[in-house]
Amino acid sequence: MDFIYNKDFIEIKDKKLSKLDKFVFDFIKLIEKNVKYVIISGYVAILFGRNRSSEDVDIFIEKINFKKFETIWKKISKDFECINTSYVKNAYDNYLSKGLALRFAKKNTFIPNIEIKFPKVDLDVWTLSECQKVIINNKILYISPLELEIPYKLFLGSEKDIEDAVHLYNLFKEHLNMKIFTEFNRKLKTHELFNKYIK
Amino acid sequence: MNMPKIDLKELEKQKKENFRQRLEFNKKYVEWLKKTSNKEWSKQQKELID
Questions:
Q1: Taking 80 as the threshold, does the pLDDT of residue A22 lie above it?
Q2: In whole angstroms, how far apart are CA B12 and each of A13, A192, B5, B16?
Q3: What is the mean pLDDT of residues A12-17?
Q4: Sign of dihedral through CA atoms A132, A142, A110, B15?
Q5: What is the CATH code for A4-144?
Q6: What's residue A52's pLDDT?
Q7: Rounded to an integer, what distance in angstroms lies between the CA atom of residue A43 and that of residue A20?
Q8: Does residue A85 or residue A49 have the better pLDDT?
Q9: Any chain A CB within 8 A of the CB of B25?
Q10: pTM (two decimals)
Q11: Looking at this predicted complex, what is its ipTM?
Q12: Which tens digit of pLDDT belongs to each residue from A167-194?
């Protein structure tokens, strides 16, 4: 894999986009001008070549008021529909505002889907504020910083998550900020898993 | 760069809650599967997996 990795972005050119990639880009195009977002979890590993698929893509969006959300909802509704509810007020009041996720799929489909939620804990807020810019074939996406993504995957702990972590670490180990990476491993108590599976 | 405060208990709680939401989604997904033709659900699955 050829990529550019610097302090501002990670860039991959000439990627043959998968259906899942196109699905994600289609969604991001509808929200990127109106709200700050960050893609977290499994799709980050898949974006960088991990050989698996996923039925959902998790995204944090910044906390916004109902009016702003309604604008985004209208844009999203051009191509996608919400699986949880058809009512924007219900979506905002009983899902997003209560810390629950909303799932959106392309109209008349169920999978794959995008799961959006507001950041809940400090770590979520940090993920959004420190998001990492990725440029794929000149298109921009924002993902969770890899120094957190990898330890967090270890924290989640399923075989699939550990494999994602191993994949990302092996791919980007020369480029990670090891001070931050180690600090997250310490805070999340994932040092042992790191030593066992990755180091 | 300021590091965020991490409360492991809170994160474990979040992990459980996310799992609960995934199970809830799986229930909905199976409901959808049951009422969707083989042609349609398998088409979507094929597109996802291929």
A1: yes
A2: 38, 18, 15, 6
A3: 89
A4: positive
A5: 3.30.460
A6: 86
A7: 9
A8: A85
A9: yes
A10: 0.91
A11: 0.72
A12: 999 999 999 999 999 999 999 999 999 9
Cis check for the bond before A112: say yes or no (omega within 30 of 0). Answer: yes
Q: Torsion angle, CA of B24/A56/A140/A36, rounded to 10 degrees?
A: 0
* DSSP-derived pairing of the beta strands A132-136 and A9-12: parallel
Cα A168 to Cα A174: distance, rounded to the nearest angstrom: 11
Which one, of A105, A121, A101, A122, lies nearest residue A113 by Cα? A105
Structural domain boundaries in chain A: 4-144, 147-194
A101, A112, A188 member nearest B6 (Cβ): A188
Verify whether the Cβ–Cβ distance A83 to B28 is below 8 Å.
yes
Is residue A133 a contact partner of residue A140, using CB atoms and an 8 Å limit? yes
pLDDT of residue B39: 85
Candidates B7, B12, B21, partner chain A, best to mutate (most A CBs within 10 A): B21
Least confident stretch, A20-24, A53-57, A95-99, B39-43: B39-43
What is the β-pairing status of strands A102-106 and A113-117?
antiparallel
How many alpha carbons lie under 13 Å from residue A66 in its C-beta half-sphere? 10
A110, A147, A154: which to substitute to probe chain B, counting the most B Cβ within 10 Å? Answer: A110
